[in-house]
Known about the structure:
The protein has helices at 57-64, 104-113, 134-144, 163-180, 203-209, 259-265, 267-279, 287-300, 324-331, 370-387, 397-417, 425-428, 441-445, and strands at 29-33, 52-54, 80-84, 91-94, 119-123, 152-154, 184-188, 222-226, 229-231, 243-247, 253-258, 282-284, 315-318, 341-346, 350-355, 429-433, 451-455. It is an alpha/beta fold.
Amino acid sequence: MADYKTPGVYIEEIPKLPPSIASVETAIPAFIGYTEIALGETEPGTTIKKPVKISSIFEYQQIFCTPGVRTPALPETDIVVSIDLSLTTPSVVTKPKTMPVFMLYYALQMYFNNGGGDCYIVSVGDYSKGAPQLPDLEAGLTEIEKLQDVTLIHFPDAMSMSMQDYYTIHSKAIQQCVNLKDRFTVLDVWMSPTPIAPGNPSNVDNLRSASLFQAPEDLKYAAVYYPRIYTDISFIYKDSDVSLTVKDATGATVFNGKMDGAKATANTYYFMAQTAILDFNMLLPASSGALGVYAATDSSRGVWKAPANVNVIDAIKPELSITNNDQQTLNVDPIAGKSINVIRTFPGRGPAIIWGARTLAGNDNEWRYISVRRFFIMVETSVKNAAEQFVFEPNDENTWTRIKAMIENFLTQQWKAGALMGASTKEAYFVHIGLGQTMTELDIWEGRLIIQIGLAAVRPAEFIILQFMHKMLSES
């Protein structure tokens, strides 16, 4: 009550409604990798640029430049085009390294084309490095630790590193997720650049035997995808870097040189080569497209909907054909529990369907599914942010009542949206707070206000079982 001393009429507004909780963003990935040019500010003592938030591939091009525009050399310098007009299929493209060395720009195209929105770009250097370096990516990972709105972590260029470095950087990313509890790591099975000899562990075996990952209970903060996918994303290259050989209908060589030379002297062959390169399918990890599916699913349905049973846009086909029998050991791992989400082709439905929705903690009944883990991250972070306004408030019944009403209103909204199970809110969640419920007198004396929240999160129908039997004539 104010201390009134002057006669008059005074207005007092009495708050009746509890404070509200705003849901945090759920699909803001941080892409950590190499860019054409590394623009932006750096902090003292580091060469890593500060994360830049963008919302489209055009913003990326404006800030970091389209690959090939400013640098004298590009990663795609090994493209060879052979045109033999005496053959039924005259144009053949070969590329020893079918997968680019630096993939951040290509991964962003897959992300945005599949429904991605806002994201952070952490430039750890330009293409002059020649190949991704573990210390660079580690420094970029440290940079995003300062950002509160990052919810997903991705290293598009990491597939070009050694297996040891690949799983080391992702192990560190998972550890950051465990420490902060507000983000999730998405990765792929590391693929050997050379064929694996018979009798040696497969790429999948190497993932599951990697001792770099944390304890099994920490694997709930990551999901892995397999195999890689062929896409219709176009290579970025320079005409002067592409070798071109042309034979006429008789088999005689009529041109042998670089594409830029054909542009001036043999224009027809130049455009034939250009078309052939456009038709050449780029091999990319599937996780970048999966991140776009995360964002699109969160926007259209909600973070509680599993980002699966969706076709990856711009995908031509998976690198490997996975059968039902193959997926049995990938989806369920009885030993290590490291479930792998598979990309499969189903005729008439799509060439690259995400056919899995599990975290790496595939044997954990609580955190088996990506949607459950990410939904809890959203609720935990949203409630945490809203509860900060009560720090240093009196630890009494009035504060407890306001906090409980605030959280219950928020969870009721989630239940109405379909994120929680139950025919009523009592079945969907509970919020406990107060002396004798969640706190003792000692807790209050030491300034602790403890809230217990239970959620009946919906889970995906991973196995739909149709039971058929013969109907007897006597049955009604």
